[in-house]
Write a structure and sequence with these properties.
Layout: H1 2-13, H2 30-39, H3 41-61, E1 66-74, H4 81-96, H5 109-117, H6 120-130, H7 133-137, E2 139-143, E3 148-151, E4 156-157, E5 162-163, H8 177-187, E6 188-192, E7 199-205, H9 208-247, H10 251-273, E8 279-283, H11 296-324
Antiparallel strand pairs: 1-7, 1-8, 2-3, 4-5, 6-7
Helix pairs in contact: 3-11, 4-10, 6-8, 9-10
Length: about 325
């Protein structure tokens, strides 16, 4: 009897010790979950509808964008064959005289051109040369009927050609080349096929005419830039080789140097007679007749799904918060 009274006294002091924990209590009852969702169905429908309508309005407000692309093939590098052969044949003899002919392989000119295309320097020079900063940074939409761009009046005045945007220091009303480069690398896309070596350059813009024009300019400018690099290097090499000829009396070495100068002259001549120096155009850029974006159906679908997910989360959180109270 005393033991029973003592046990009852202990249970009264520590009631939690008498309860048995059931692992199933921590699991969510699916029937309860569906019941909660059903009870909050009108809230879910309302929020999902709002998001769906909002996504449709947002999608319709987005201007159409157009993409133009060109398919290019790497130009042959036959002008480098003579120099590579000389480097392999007379490299040891020339090194004895203190002359470095370089490696027989060298850097892939096509890959170098692609990296130049992606560089900040090329983008800055391209933007400044063709004066495309307003078309890149301040456009709102393209008027198809007049084939003209509509600029953001708060950013740029096309009549006076002045920048009006309000920014904090160190930024200025006219965007810097660093800002322009961030936007430029988003509208240009460069892809190289590993199996064929073909290169595709594409530009996306509000105006299909501008997209086509920029692709054409990019191909022309990269060919010209790589040509000028090789010509300048060949001229410097020729000047250096002429100085080396004056410093040596060894007939074999002088013969090698003369042949090297001849190869540099061939490089200059080859560059001057060919406009498509690095890339040959297989399929030129065209003015697109169909829009490339935006993907309005996808925007509407994602907006609706986001709204439904947010609504479900709100309903469930409200239920469990009330349950804990």
């Amino acid at each position: 009897m005393n033991k029973q009274v003592q046990q009852n006294h202990t249970d009264a002091q520590f009631p939690h010790m008498n309860s048995v924990h059931n692992p199933g209590d921590d699991e969510i009852d699916l029937r309860e979950l569906f019941s909660v969702i059903w009870q909050g169905k009108w809230l879910i429908i309302a929020i999902t509808t709002v998001f769906a309508i909002g996504s449709v309005i947002f999608a319709l407000m987005q201007p159409n964008t157009y993409k133009s692309e060109a398919l290019l093939a790497p130009a042959s590098e036959e002008q480098g064959g003579g120099l590579s052969a000389l480097a392999g044949q007379f490299g040891g003899l020339a090194s004895m005289a203190g002359i470095n002919l370089g490696a027989a392989g060298g850097v892939d000119k096509t890959q170098m051109a692609i990296e130049v295309l992606k560089s900040r320097q090329f983008a800055s020079q391209f933007i400044q040369k063709h004066n495309i900063l307003p078309d890149l940074m301040a456009t709102d939409k393209w008027d198809m009927s007049t084939n003209t761009l509509v600029y953001n009046e708060k950013m740029y005045n096309p009549v006076t050609k002045t920048w009006l945007r309000e920014v904090k220091a160190p930024f200025k009303p006219e965007p810097s080349m660093q800002e322009a480069f961030k936007v430029f690398k988003k509208v240009i896309e460069i892809n190289s096929a590993k199996d064929t070596g073909m290169v595709t350059i594409s530009v996306e813009h509000l105006s299909p005419n501008i997209a086509q024009q920029w692709v054409t300019w990019i191909v022309e400018d990269i060919n010209k830039a790589m040509k000028e690099r090789d010509v300048a290097e060949a001229i410097r090499s020729s000047e250096f080789l002429n100085k080396q000829i004056a410093l040596t009396n060894v007939a074999d070495i002088r013969s090698i140097l003369y042949r090297l100068i001849e190869e540099q002259a061939k490089t200059i001549m080859f560059a001057e007679v060919r406009d498509e120096y690095v890339f040959k155009t297989i399929d030129p850029a065209l003015v697109s007749e169909e829009k490339d974006g935006p993907k309005r159906a996808l925007i509407c679908l994602l907006g609706t799904v986001l709204g439904a997910g947010l609504a479900l989360m709100i309903v469930l959180i409200r239920h469990f918060v009330r349950k804990e109270e």
